[in-house]
Write a structure and sequence with these properties.
Layout lengths: L2 H9 L5 H27 L2 H12 L5 H29 L12 H8 L3 H15 L6 H19 L14 H22 L1 H17 L9 H26 L5 H12 L3 H20 L6 H23 L24 H11 L9 E6 L3 H19 L1 H4 L2 E7 L1 H15 L11 H10 L4 H17 L14 H12 L22 E8 L5 E4 L4 E2 L7 E2 L12 H7 L10 E5 L2 E7 L8 H8 L11 E8 H4 L5 E2 L12 E2 L7 H35 L8 E6 L14 H21 L18
Parallel strand pairs: 1-2, 1-9, 2-3, 9-12, 10-11
Antiparallel strand pairs: 3-4, 3-8, 5-6, 7-8
Helix pairs in contact: 2-4, 2-6, 2-10, 3-6, 4-5, 4-8, 4-9, 4-10, 6-7, 9-10, 9-19, 10-19, 11-12, 12-13, 15-17, 15-18, 15-25, 17-18, 17-21, 18-20, 19-20, 20-21
């Protein structure tokens, strides 16, 4: 908006209401945007509901849960006041209101801070009305908190009482509520600067040491960032108005830096935008002050420098923000799969020569899938002893399944549960210590500090070995929670397996961004066969021949948006890798390919394939119809879900989700049909039973996130216990149930 426009607004006696709304949002759009985005993130996604439930449920479980719950309450008390103050600061400019538009600014100030409260109410109502099991304590806490939040929201109606309601019955009813809230709001306004400074300092502290964030909880960490971002962006808006006749040049510069961080194309767009802005300032000097022309020159030079850097280093660092190249580690010469299987079979104890050999396919699904995979293997290892633990030859993991496989591998590799004096439930205890944790809060702490800084200012491009992105924190948290049993997570994949060790071989599936092909990370170089093409089984970074087990697990679990793509320098160029679930979320494709490349003399009668999946993902994707179609059906139908997205924008998303789900089912059925046909054709000489181990979702929430409610962990264990007990009873092995150890001490 130019100077002439500013003068025109002030000289107008009666600006239109739409003009006044635009004038207000021109100044206050940053705090409003922060409030809207945070509110949507809190109210809509299921992982946010799970995080909010977890904060409530964990209040009484331990000290960290109590601190996190208290911090969340404090932030919800002060966040509305901080957003109110940020909007007021942005609007503190010469303004003119006509008589019919005087409510515009009060409405913005009153409701910008109440939007997160409305979102919290919506999330809590969803939790109460949803199908997930919550404890009586959580239900009671929600019923206590809801009226308080609703009261604070209703006090926002006071802005409408300044008109016709002021002297009416409604105004008199709202007056006491408004008076009480004004005292709370005055307290927040009085200390909002101190609270904002404290939030910034706390955000810096958890950025330096992210594990502290687990004491605050994910909701508090996100609210801290929103508070700091709203005040900072409001300040940039004010600075822009001082430098120029426009309100957004500094905001535009921040957004442009983020766009430039994507690489050469983004930096060129940033340079073009700054060039246009500079030309506007210098071609029309009457509208631009000397300060604005100086600012335009600085921004133009900055854009030129970043573009030069991007074009010069595009091979090593194609994305300036988050260059974050994963460095390789030294590794021995990798082994070949077929010969390694033969060596592993020969190294088995004589009494296990004719016992089953297990190939495990672990599907993806965040921390839920990780805990399910690791706990299934742990419970069977504790119940059946070394016979089962040493019988697992390979685990093909995808996303969270890879993390669970790495956790179980770390326990087996350490040998901590193989000593004579180990507890009967040693494997289960170690899985709880490693995975029943808050992995989300430390990741958010890094996202809102170093990762965000690296997006605006490409710090990581100064040194290709710096890793500032948030996925790094996931690796560190897994190693930290593993303790002594996780020392092997920092060693290379090629060193993670030898035939005498009798530990599972990890096959961690990822997807290459450039081609969409599946990439397998394993201890082996290739899987060769005279009948099939060689199957590559490694990523070999330049400067080092291998990647660590923890890094490989989280390369397989990198879902964009949650974590950035992994970038590895291979053959002089950067390759990007994302979540293996893009290609196949079941992990069975890799197992299928490995079985076809086993030696001809493999003990086929002893091989067993177990597919770990949830009952939800095991259900075939069926077409839906509003009413039952007439006549016979080739396949069963289901009623159309009301939340299915339709139309030109929603239909592609619905199609993608349906095709992705069907693709996973096709992989399972194809593998099962192939080996069933092989068994019949070869008269059972190569019988490979494939068992789909289904975990029913009995009330607990299936959420793809890195933070789960403790009840979800307990529910997974309870369902596993029920399924394993039923299997042991059918085989008359009920004595093995003694080692299952219920659901752990935190579930009592």
């Amino acid at each position: 908006m130019g100077v002439s426009g500013h003068i025109r607004r002030e000289s107008a006696k009666h600006p239109s209401c739409s003009e006044e709304i635009g004038n207000a949002l021109e100044h206050a759009w940053c705090p409003v945007l922060c409030s809207v985005l945070f509110s949507l993130a809190l109210a809509v996604p299921d992982p946010s509901h799970e995080a909010l439930t977890s904060v409530i449920e964990n209040t009484w479980r331990d000290t960290a849960g109590m601190v996190a719950a208290g911090a969340t309450l404090v932030m919800f008390l002060f966040l509305p006041a901080i957003l109110h103050s940020a909007a007021r600061h942005a609007l503190h400019t010469p303004r003119h209101f006509g008589p019919h538009c005087r409510l515009v600014e009060p409405i913005i100030l009153a409701w910008v801070g109440r939007l997160p409260l409305i979102a919290a109410i919506a999330a809590l109502v969803h939790i109460l009305a949803g199908q997930d099991d919550i404890t009586t304590f959580a239900r009671g806490a929600i019923l206590v908190v809801l009226p308080v939040l609703l009261f604070f929201v209703l006090t926002g109606l006071h802005v409408f009482g300044q008109g016709r309601w002021r002297d009416g019955r409604t105004g008199r009813l709202l007056a006491p509520l408004w008076g009480l809230y004004r005292r709370v709001e005055a307290l927040g306004e009085r200390y909002h600067v101190a609270v904002c400074v404290a939030a910034a300092v706390l955000l810096l502290v958890i950025g330096i040491h992210p594990p502290i964030a687990a004491w605050l909880g994910p909701i508090t960490v996100a609210a801290l960032f929103v508070a700091v971002a709203a005040m900072a962006l409001a300040g940039l808006t004010r600075m822009s108005s001082r430098f120029s006749y426009g309100r957004i040049p500094l905001i535009l510069a921040v957004v442009g830096l983020g766009v430039a961080a994507t690489g050469r194309t983004g930096s060129a767009v940033f340079l073009a935008a700054m060039l246009i802005y500079g030309l506007a300032c210098f071609i029309h000097p009457g509208k631009a002050s000397r300060g604005e022309r100086g600012l335009a020159l600085v921004l133009l030079l900055t854009a030129a420098a970043i573009s030069f850097w991007a074009f010069r280093n595009h091979r090593v660092c194609p994305s300036l923000a988050g260059c974050n190249l994963i460095a390789g580690v030294a590794a021995p010469a990798p082994q070949e799969f077929r010969s390694s299987f033969t060596a592993w079979q020969a190294a088995r104890p004589p009494d296990q020569a004719n016992t089953p050999i297990h190939f495990i396919a672990a599907e993806g699904g965040g921390l839920f899938a990780a805990y399910y995979t690791a706990m299934y293997l742990a419970k069977r290892s504790d119940a059946e002893g070394e016979d089962f633990a040493r019988s697992v030859f390979a685990i093909s993991g995808v996303s969270g399944g890879s993390v669970g496989a790495a956790a179980f591998w770390a326990i087996r590799h350490s040998g901590i549960c193989a000593v004579p004096d180990a507890a009967p439930d040693c494997h289960q205890q170690k899985v709880r210590e490693m995975l029943a944790r808050d992995y989300l809060s430390p990741v958010l702490a890094r996202l809102f500090t170093w990762d965000l800084l690296d997006t605006v200012l490409p710090v990581s491009s100064l040194d290709a070995t710096w890793r500032l992105e948030r996925a790094t924190q996931l690796e560190r948290e897994l190693v930290r929670h593993a303790g002594p049993s996780g020392s092997g997570l920092a060693q290379g994949l090629a060193s993670s397996w030898t035939p005498p060790a009798q530990v599972p071989a990890l096959f961690l599936n990822a997807t290459r961004v450039e081609s969409g092909n599946r990439i397998i990370q394993s201890p082996f170089a290739t899987a060769q066969s005279p009948f099939y093409p060689d199957l590559p089984l490694r990523i070999e970074p330049d400067g080092g021949g291998d990647i660590t087990v923890a890094t490989g697990a989280f390369i397989s679990a990198r879902f964009p948006g949650v974590t950035a793509p992994a970038r590895i320098l291979v053959d002089g160029g950067v390759r990007q890798f994302v979540d293996g679930g893009y290609f196949d979320n079941s992990g069975i494709e890799t197992i299928h390919d490995l079985l076809r490349r086993l030696p001809d003399d493999a003990p086929w009668r002893n091989i067993r394939v177990i597919m770990l999946t949830t009952l939800k993902n095991a259900e075939p994707y069926r077409p839906c119809a509003t009413v039952a179609p007439p006549g016979p059906l080739d396949e069963p139908y289901r009623p159309c879900a009301p939340d299915r997205m339709q139309g030109p924008l929603g239909a592609p998303v619905t199609t993608f989700l349906g095709a992705w789900h069907s693709r996973m089912q096709m992989s399972r059925h194809r593998a099962a049909d192939y080996w069933d046909t092989t068994r019949r054709q070869l008269n059972s000489d190569q019988a490979v039973p494939i068992v789909q181990y289904l975990l029913p979702l009995n009330g607990h929430n299936y959420t793809v996130s890195w933070y789960l409610n403790q009840n979800t962990f307990c529910g997974i264990e309870k369902d596993l216990n029920d399924l394993l007990l039923e299997g042991y009873r059918q085989r008359k092995l009920s004595h093995r149930a003694q080692a299952l150890n219920g659901e752990g001490p935190r579930c009592q």
